[in-house]
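Figure S4 source data
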Amino acid sequence: MATRNGTVVLLEDFMEEALTKAKLEIEKRRGTCDEHTAEIIAYGAVKYSILKTSNDKNVTFIWDDALSFDGDSGPYLQYSIARIFSLEKNCGELDFSDVDLGLLDSFEEVDLVIELSKMYDIVYVATETLSPHHIAKYLLNVTQKFSKFYQTKSVIHAETEKHKKARLYMVKAVKQVIMNCFRILGIEYLEVM
């Protein structure tokens, strides 16, 4: 679509197309897909694709990119938080009264903690400049750093129970930051994908 050329697509038609394509993608991956899940993924994909673009740039919307479960896309971000919910469920309830965050000393852990600490400043800049793309970019950075951490450091099978507690505590902080960013951007997430 190109409004200057008079090529306009109605939002209702666009969102219906997003829903249809999301269902097909999910069914390809899982074999089945319910309407609610497809809707959350489809609408999240569209919203994120638009919001990640700076206000001074044209939005280039490509269906395959928007609905991809890899890289800079809404479904990738939604999958990341679903993975966190799954991890928490597998770890069970832990008592964090004696958590030792000093044990988070690997490069991936420290890098992730530093990224989490940037949220206030990112939201402030995005609000002051009316530029939600800052939050979208930050959300992607957090999920990518979480993914690197998750690939290199075991939470469930950590070296010690104290390491497990510290890592799970950090994972809970990651989940909260991701959920906050989703709420700010108006994107829903799923606990299971």
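Figure S5 source data
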Amino acid sequence: MAEQIDLSKEHKPDWALFLPAVSSFFITGLGKQRDTTTEDYFPQERIPAGFNGDVERLNFLNSKEGLFTYKWGLYSAGHADLDVTKDIPAESIIRDREEGTFMLGDSGGFQIMKGQWPADWKNPNCPKALEQRIKVLTWMDTYMDYGMCLDIPSQTVQNQHLFDKHGIKTIEEAALATHINNDYFIHNRNGNCKFLNVLQGLNHTQSDNWYEEMKMYCDPNKYPDNHFNGWAFGGQNKIDIHLTLKRIVGIIHDGLLEPGKHDLIHCLGTSILEYAVLFSDIQKAVRKYHNPNLQITFDCASPFFGAAKGLA
């Protein structure tokens, strides 16, 4: 049996934190294999001999049995079975993860952009949108430590061939739909999950306008008991370091990156090594001069995607 490696110990406290974006095929495969009420999901001949027939060795959230362990991750509502009223063994890796692990929930905006959650998202009275909104929020509040609000990604406006699936033509309509989702989340959250205010925009002007519209959701003066608890940088905000720095300065200036109130900034789908260094340096500076609690996180799904597509 190979010696267990605890990768969590390799992370230095002043580094920005990498979150592996766990794929559904990984969660489902391990979950079905550990389901004792059914036959093995993976034939024994496919399991390496050193695993002793147990693919739970690949569950990095299991500190006792994992071949390697890492206590942080990201999982998307767009990949999950959102029915919290049922026992779903295929989701047990996430639902029954051990205490002390941390999971950030992505809201599923990507699924809206791709037309996989069809609804007229800019219509506050659309029943399909409301149903999905309720499912996502309930799932986040039940299983996630932090979660992102259900935003409409900037790139949705570039997918006009899917207009009949999402109803979004302009960045203004994307912002309107995000307002509707934010309002629902902020008035119906139960407090179990902390939420991030997602910032979008395809350029500086759009990003500035989006921030000015959405910043109120993090304002303790406007929402003293249920304001959002941090930020998620999407669109241009996450890849244009000039804009990233400008945005953080503006957030600090507006009093919306306060210790104990807004302690997390997540950079969506960004994992280039150079950016990890930049995010770590930014985190150190903000901790030194403003919020000593700040944690910057970033994610990617490449390790899982590479395995799923037979590339690794």
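The CA atoms of residues 71 and 99 lie 10 Å apart. The radius of gyration is 20 Å.
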